[in-house]
């Protein structure tokens, strides 16, 4: 790799300040940030591996309880193949989880190796910097002592020169001796100071060499880390891509099976295996409940009437089956035209739509043989009285609601099922089986 001046640590992190470590600190900070990046990558890969493992196991678990056992034909084969391939996809993601864990382990080992190399070089440079600073402080201290001794020597010499004509010889000798001592101390301080400067220079050169070498090592570690990070991300991308291709190949197998899925063949197969036949159910005809009952009664002996009356008298709460209802759909149709079995006979005629309508809940006024709607009714029928044994709720405006105990004057009893009469000022039809003949001594109120 070719370097330019701006691409080398060793050319760009020096400082004029003799004791400053800012350039070194910046480089070390960058290396620690790179170490943290590797740690983040390792943690990310472990998390991704966990996600892939969970996803794969979830897919496999889902396929174990996928159902679809009742499907048939080519759709069944398509479903089974889809489930099988989905299970393989899940297993592939579990395998991918293992690969990612291996890659995370590789990142951790690389990070630890880099940390060891950085630490070794960092200790060397840090030691040189510390010694350089210590020597520098010694130089400053010895320089200060040297300068003081020089000032003391100069002062002693000045005093001796000025006093040689004014003091006694004995005193002058003392001043000269002091001057000599000061001069000696100054020379000694000078020698110590010079030696300290020489040692500092040697230490400076050593630190310079160590720092320059450290810059080279640190740059090499950073280059190696960046290459490793790039390659590792490339590998992760390839791993993800390869497993996506595996997934796509598995799904492609499913698509091939789906192309063979034919709904017509599946339906034909289903019909052939499980058909029940082609015969449709016959029409269900209406069967009048009361027709069956009347036919049964026609075959009973005469004594059954007495038995029935006895049974009714002992259990007034039992209600006989309701006769043929007259609902709203047939109310306005003549009784002779309704869908009534022939065995019921001809039902009594109901007044036409233009005939006067009976007024509900109105008092009975002058109802007799002169009534034009009932002119054909004979005098005997008009006088016949019956008593209601059960409640009956009318099912149309031609029928009449009766209650148990009501006394009814019969105006038409020609039908075997339905009679017509008047009760409490109301006129209409009522079921014959719901009434019994009133006692001879009972009158219509």
| Sheet with the most strands: spatial strand order | 4-3-2-1-5
Compute the separation of the termini in Å: 131 Å
| Biggest sheet descriptor | 5 strands, antiparallel
Uncertain runs are: 301-306, 308-318, 324-382
Sheet-strand content, in percent, reads 5-15%
Radius of gyration: 62 Å
Mean pLDDT: 81
Helicity, in percent? 55-70%
Number of strands: 5
Shape type: elongated
Helical stretch tally: 7
Backbone structural class? mainly alpha
Kindly summarize this structure in a few lines:
With 445 residues, the protein is mainly alpha-helical. The chain has 7 helices and 5 strands, in the order αααααααβββββ. About 17% of the residues have low confidence.
Primary descriptors:
7 helices, 445 residues, elongated, 5 strands, five-stranded antiparallel β-sheet, single chain, mainly alpha
List the helices and strands and how they pair.
Layout: H1 22-64, H2 73-163, H3 169-259, H4 263-274, H5 289-298, H6 303-314, H7 379-383, E1 385-388, E2 407-412, E3 418-423, E4 426-431, E5 435-437
Antiparallel strand pairs: 1-2, 1-5, 2-3, 3-4
Kindly describe this structure:
This protein has a five-stranded antiparallel β-sheet with strand order 4-3-2-1-5. It has helices at residues 22-64, 73-163, 169-259, 263-274, 289-298, 303-314, 379-383, and strands at 385-388, 407-412, 418-423, 426-431, 435-437. It contains seven helices and five strands, in the order H-H-H-H-H-H-H-E-E-E-E-E. Helix 1 runs antiparallel to helix 2 (73-163) and helix 1 (22-64) packs parallel to helix 3 (169-259). The protein is mainly alpha-helical and 445 residues long. It is 59% helix and 6% strand. The longest helix has 91 residues, at 73-163.
